[in-house]
Amino acid sequence: xxxxxxxxxxxxxxxxxxxxxxxxxxxxxxxxxxxxxxxxxxxxxxxxxxxxxxxxxxxxxxxxxxxxxxxxxxxxxxxxxxxxxxxxxxxxxxxxxxxxxxxxxxxxxxxxxxxxxxxxxxxxxxxxxxxxxxxxxxxxxxxxxxxxxxxxxxxxxxxxxxxxxxxxxxxxxxxxxxxxxxxxxxxxxxxxxxxxxxxxxxxxxxxxxxxxxxxxxxxxxxxxxxxxxxxxxxxxxxxxxxxxxxxxxxxxxxxxxxxxxxxxxxxxxxxxxxxxxxxxxxxxxxxxxxxxxxxxxxxxxxxxxxxxxxxxxxxxxxxxxxxxxxxxxxxxxxxxxxxxxxxxxxxxxxxx
Length: 352
Prior knowledge:
This protein has helices at about 85-95, 115-125, 145-155, 165-170, 175-185, 195-200, 245-255, 295-305, 330-340; strands at about 10, 30-35, 75, 105, 130-135, 155-160, 190-195, 205, 220-225, 235, 260-265, 265-270, 275-280, 285-290, 295, 310, 315, 320-325, 330. It is of the alpha/beta class. The longest helix is centred in the middle third of the chain and has 15 residues, at about 115-125.
């Protein structure tokens, strides 16, 4: 006998009598469909944990995803996405959302997923989306819903909001909904994540490593992600605005085979296959530690020493430029290198 559907679905309208303010406790399977709170709830509430990387190759580095050629587009936004901005607009364009293409969203990462769902429904509607459904999946039991998994598989686009990326991963990984997102993306569905929603989409996820409101340094967390983006990458968001370059340096010093991607606010890295185009008002910083000749990452972690690195490779990619994730280089330079390496051939009239 199959497992029962753990999450019967009930729609929630803005004037629902069961909604005494948007911050109420959600009922099982609530869905917010096509008011105003900050959708980029980024504060993390994590206990310190021992870093655990995904299944690794012999060098202890996560394996890249087995194939990216048939997968759908990934839109990775650095947070604070403007409804009128090109970053969120690209998601709507690729999903035909303005013509009624179905978007299924998740505010699982938020401390208040119901309020965040209403906020994102509002912003996506303002941006022009006409068919939006946001099931309230705030625990693993609700992520086992066959009905919500079917919604994901039927969607043109899947949207993951901000908050706590580790909670998002822990809630969705290994569930019917989490598997449905992975399968839908592999079949061509567009998946968009902003802030924590973007940080969760890589094979390896970064969180914490910053001073909290009490002035205490919270231990950095590096662990497994949802794995939709391969190429041994790790994403940091709100990058320029929150001055997170040093945090990414520390992370890459500890895991030099992983490439760090720092995405600015209201900016997207739009990934098709192994190529990522930068769209929006900011840029994307990439940090490659494979060529590092010296680092004291172990002393930083064990004794709190100041970070020292040599030969760390850093680049910034602006709007309209493309980053080759496989080569870890701007695509225009990759193409130029190919042209330079070509050997000219003089052919006769009958040669082919």
